[in-house]
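Example (one chain per record):
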Amino acid sequence: MVSGIFGRDRDGLRLLGNLAVAFVPAAIVGLLLEDRIKRYLYGVWPIAAAWLVGGIFILAVLNRRRLKEGTALESLGWQSALLIGLAQVIALWPGVSRSLVTIAGGLFAGLSMSAAVEFSFLLGLVTLGAATMYEALRQGHQIVQTFGVAAPVVGHLAAAGVLNA
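Predicted structure:
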């Protein structure tokens, strides 16, 4: 993807563009409905309902699809990326697995299981990284007041070390 930015990898640039397209729906809906989501969906019963629906979805829908067939990640178009991004919006409901809905979106968009998993992972890095940065900018002062500076810095370094191991 980095090579794609500099014009050296057409597929990398296309993947980066598809990730941006897939990221936008959840970013917009999350920003617009953040307060309502926190007010109405952060509770035991809404989360339990999300788990129940997710479990039924896995058993009823995903279990019946042929998961080995499908196209490669390089064949993903922006329309399919948008479909996956719209599926990710469902995961703004606490208790809904972001990975489940984005992998399912990828499968319904025609990707193979391995391509759907890879795109879901990359989209997760973008989405969760952006959400973390957003909250850090909004709530960073509370984190520093509660834990000081050293503990969060050590935690980030340890997480980065584990990811690079």
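Caption: The longest helix spans residues 113-147.
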